[in-house]
Amino acid sequence: MHNKSPGGIIQSNQSSFSTLYRLVDMVIITLVYFLVLLYQGLSINSSDLLLLFVSIISYMLCAEAVDLYRSWRTAPNTMMIKWAMIAWGISSLVTTTYAFIFPDSIAASNFVVLSWLVLCAPTLVSWRVAFREILFRHRKKGHNTRKAIVIGATQSGYNLATQIMENDQLGIIFKGMYDDRAPARIPHEIQHQVMGSIEEAVKLAKKGEIDYIYIAMPMSAEKRIMQILNLCSDSTATVYIIPNFFMYNLLNARWQSVGSIQTLSVFDTPFQGAGDVTKRLEDIVVSSIILTLIAIPMLFIAIAVKLTSKGPVIFKQNRYGLDGKKIKVYKFRSMTVQDNGDKVQQATKNDARITPLGAFLRKTSLDELPQFINVLQGRMSVVGPRPHAVAHNEEYRKLIEGYMLRHKVRPGITGWAQINGFRGETETINKMIKRVEYDLDYIHRWSVWMDIRIILATVTRGFINKNAY
């Protein structure tokens, strides 16, 4: 077989509506800008058009970079909204930077520019959600649909078929499973879905009766998969492979190119490219605001710690940070000792090492306020898996599968596990397992909206922690 293109064989799927999306985005950005100018009673001149041009070009480039105009048929709304907001956020940053560097070339006031950028964000999102809802209703009526089959009567194939049938808004009509094995070798609950042999499936594809082919076979059947791919190449059907390792809990898996070779990252971080920039901006903004608000309370706490017990005000403990690298995490000292060695004992109820003031600080989580400085330093995030002492990490990584994957992101001051009740002492291994499960779920599902939800939940549920000793 001859190599196709040097870029590899896997390309992003482009939506048939991609041109429409691009045009509507440009119209919205332009229309909102003109409406703001008209509302302010300003006329449109060449300098306004230049700023508009900068904004549209930067947005289009960002949108292409994050693959915003691909098909979102099978993706959740939150994912589409996330990337639209990231593209507009970066574009807004470029636009405001241009306005700051060349103020004399901008006729519009700062208020006009800011109003325009702020109003565009919900408008760009709203029309997408509305249009998608129209498409969903259209597809439920049987319009704009695609026909799909699954080759390989396996559990992963059956799970996919179930999802297709349960989500009719996707506009995918499931036409059955195809397998060459005898019925006795196929799981009982799947047998009724098998419509015929693989040869029959390929014939349907060659006739143009099938749009999507999902190959759900074990990786051990590599030769057979290659044979099927060669047969399917004589059709116009879009072919997807669901290898059986997708049955496992992959963490932010994504395709990457190394030269002309395609690789799949199995355990990865969600914070790459625009995602990393967005998360860092979020941390800087939130931590700066909070530090401004708590500066005076922190000063009083520092004085109280110094006056009530011997030792430093700030306790600096080694923890594992991003990629498992050691970092120094700050806390107001709440104990008479400073454990930071190979063995660290967790605080327990009525622990004699805890000072009277320290007990109050730990109960109210006030001892963790200096960690907002760690956030500004880039060592931590406002939201993320809570960092554990190095000694505890070395202990639990041997006992809990996937434990170290929580270090694919920066540790946080609060997190998904904490607002779900897994905070403070973890006196049993089962509690730590649940905490790790929530941490990995957060990494897998991360979005700015999820961070906001966690921050609001942390504030509204209060800082009192009954499990903190």
UniProtKB/TrEMBL annotation:
One of its GO terms (molecular function) is undecaprenyl-phosphate glucose phosphotransferase activity. Its EC number is 2.7.8.31. It is a multi-pass membrane protein. It comes from the Bacteria. Residues 279-461 form the Bacterial sugar transferase domain. GO terms for cellular component: membrane. It is an enzyme of class 2 (transferase). The chain crosses the membrane at residues 20-43, 49-69, 81-101, 107-131, 284-305. SUPFAM superfamilies: NAD(P)-binding Rossmann-fold domains. Keywords: Membrane, Transferase, Transmembrane, Transmembrane helix. It is found in: Membrane. Its main location: membrane. Pfam families: Bac_transf (PF02397), CoA_binding_3 (PF13727). GO terms for biological process: colanic acid biosynthetic process. Belongs to the bacterial sugar transferase family. NCBIfam families: EPS_sugtrans, WcaJ_sugtrans. This is UDP-glucose:undecaprenyl-phosphate glucose-1-phosphate transferase. It comes from Paraglaciecola mesophila.
